[in-house]
Each structure stands twice: as structure tokens, then as C-alpha cells.
Amino acid sequence: MTIETRFADWTPSDASDWIAVPSENDDKYSRGVLGVVTGSSAYPGAAVLGVEAALHTGVGMLRYLGPARASDFVLHRRPEAVTSPGRVQAWLLGSGVDPDDLDAETRDGFATGASSGLPLVLDAGALALREQATGPVVLTPHFRELAKASGREVDEVAADPAGAAERAAGEWGCTVLVKGHRTYVASPGGARLVAASAPSWLATAGAGDALGGVLGALVATHADEVAEDEEALARLAATAAVVHGLAASRASAGGPVTVLGLIDALPATIAELLSRA
Q: pLDDT tens digits, residue range 65-123?
């Protein structure tokens, strides 16, 4: 059996089982609260895209605790975002962050998330935080980020993303999602999943920031399941990739797609998935 064949297809029908639908008795806290430390003075848009995607995927509340400039952009776009500390069920950290140039707010937010014992979605500038994390972790690198973090060549990762995901999960002891036209997810417990719903038009700046927001929301709304079984992170990661890809296809309609267009398509995409359940 080749590495590729060890990865099972994660389909829209599979994904539909991993979307939390609020009941009439839910409130903003029971629906899931996501803590977010993303963006930077150089890349404030990454924070906006991740926050937008998380809110369009569905959480009860989102706490944005990143740098001041990015916070201004987030609040301008989404005034319902909360910018004060408080309880959360999961964290999204690192999108649009340079790990070699952390501001004070980002450094403090990273430390809070890493020490919380809660599930962490680590992207871009927070990948190294896996070494300090006290809770379950899912990493969401693209080829170049994974190559840098693992000490391998980019061409090596690009040639075998399934193998790269599998090796990283084993070496680091956390779930790894390797972004691409086919998105591979591997967990240290043995889950091997692949999602292939994304159109080629999705190879665009900001798409990974949106994926992080989708996954952050899914993890926050399934924090209890993750606490009971860390393998749930792999299924949630693959679900995020399916939702993200289907929303991109809906927004694209066969042509170019913008990331905000993808995000706007998330609610209808999720509604269609739920109709299949």
C-alpha cells in the first residue's frame, strides 16, 4: 500500500456530520467561543479574513486579542467581535504573523493560548508554538511553511504532501493539515484523510487565513468532542477543508474567486451540507 492510498477520502457527506447546529436552548457560550490571535501591523487583513470566516461558519462568540492595528480593522468589519479577554473553548493562532517579529499583544496571546490546555489551531507564525502547547493541536501549514518547520526542501514536500503530513504528525505528536488542491490530514493516532473539493482558482492570497477561521470555528463548536477524543481534530480539519473548498466552488462558479467571496458563500454551503445529513 502506498502512502497516498492510506488516506481515505473525506466527502461532503462525512463533513455534514461534523457541523454543529444550535438548539433552541443554546446561548452564545454553549455554541462555542473562539479566541483569535492573528494578523499583524504588516498583515492586518489576515486577521479580518480569519475572523470573517469563523463568524460565517458559526460560533456563539469570537474574542479577537491580536495587535491594535489589526483589531481596528476587525472591529470596523465585525463590530460583534469582542476584544476583551474571557473564556473561550478553542484558539486560532498565527495567521498573518511573522514569528521573528512578535508584538507584545501577539506574544501575550500566544502564551495564553499555549498554556490554556484548550484545543489550538496553529497557522503560519504560530507553528512552533506546538512545542509549548498544553492542549490538543492541529497545524495548518502550506508546503513552504511545512518545509521550513520540518527542515525539508519545499520540492520534497510538494512532491509528496501526504507523506509530509504523515511524517510531521508522527514526529510532532499533533494533527497536521497540509494545504493544497488536495488537502491531506494526518494525526498521531493514525487518522489519514484527504479532502479534494477545492477549485484551482482557490490558489490565492488569503485563502489559508479563511481556512484557519473555518477550522477554528469548527473546533470551538466541538470542543467537548475533542476533549474526549483528540482524533476528532483530524475529522474537523478535513471537514474544514471540504467546507472551504465547496464555498470556493460556489463563489467561483467556474471563474476567479476572491476570499471574501468564498467567505460570503460559507453559510449557504453549510446549509446545503446540512440538508444532506
A: 999 999 999 999 999 999 999 999 999 999 999 999 999 999 999 999 999 999 999 99
Residue entry with cell 488516506: 7
Measure the CA–CA gap between 196 and 248, rounded to whole angstroms. 12
The CATH number of residue 207's host domain is 3.40.1190.20
CA distance 117 to 123: 18
CA distance 89 to 219: 8
Grid coordinates belonging to 272: 446545503
Residue 47 belongs to what domain range?
4-276
Name the amino acid, one letter, at 109. G
Please state the pTM of the whole predicted model.
Answer: 0.97
Using a 10 angstrom Cβ sphere, with 0-12 exposed, 13-18 middle and 19 or more buried, the burial of residue 13 is exposed
Tally of structural domains, the chain: 1
What is the 3-class SS of 183-232, one letter each residue?
EEEECCCCCEEEECCCCHHHCCCCHHHHHHHHHHHHHHHCHHHHHHCCCH
Of 43, 41, 42, 88, residue with least CA distance to 64: 88
pLDDT, tens digit, 9 for 90 and up, residues 123-171: 999 999 999 999 999 999 999 999 999 999 999 999 999 999 999 999 9
Q: Where are the alpha helices (DSSP H) in the chain?
A: 12-16, 44-57, 68-77, 104-115, 143-150, 154-159, 161-172, 207-221, 223-228, 232-252, 259-264, 266-276
